[in-house]
Amino acid sequence: AAAARYEAESATIVKGAAESNHSGYSGTGFVNGDNVVGSYVEFTVDAALAGTGTIAIRYANGTTDARPADVAVNGTVVSAARAFDATTDWNTWATSTLTTPVKAGSNKIRLTSTSANGLPNLDYLDFTVTSSDTEPPT
Ligand code: GCU
Ligand code: CA
């Protein structure tokens, strides 16, 4: 199935703000998380069925150091202090992709900064889910 796109500027933002002062983003902007430990963006994504979710996070990090963030799904950290590596400048975007078990229906995906440098700028999250069941023959 095609990925569903969830714009960060439409997600729940705690200690940060939607901004648009750099180029190359999707939607109306991106989220600039405050440069502190614990700033977060939480996406609510819909899974058509329980299975393996693929989460592709588009971000920019115009510094020279990785910006680590915990990725939690429904309150469980599935990728601790995940490194969002430098992207040359704030107008250059990269995608970090991981997989995680998800339940059918609504799932909460939260990215929380774990360093005082805060989050990378976040553009969107693309989400797809595949069933853990065997595909029927075609
Ligand atoms: C700059 C940049 C912001 C970014 C910030 C940071 O201020 O313009 O978009 O979020 O650096 O270091 O986090
Ligand atoms: Ca910031």
Automatic annotation (TrEMBL):
Shown chain mapped onto the complete sequence: 35 to 172 of 687
Record's protein name: Carbohydrate-binding protein
Transmembrane segments: none
Residues annotated as domain CBM6: 4-128
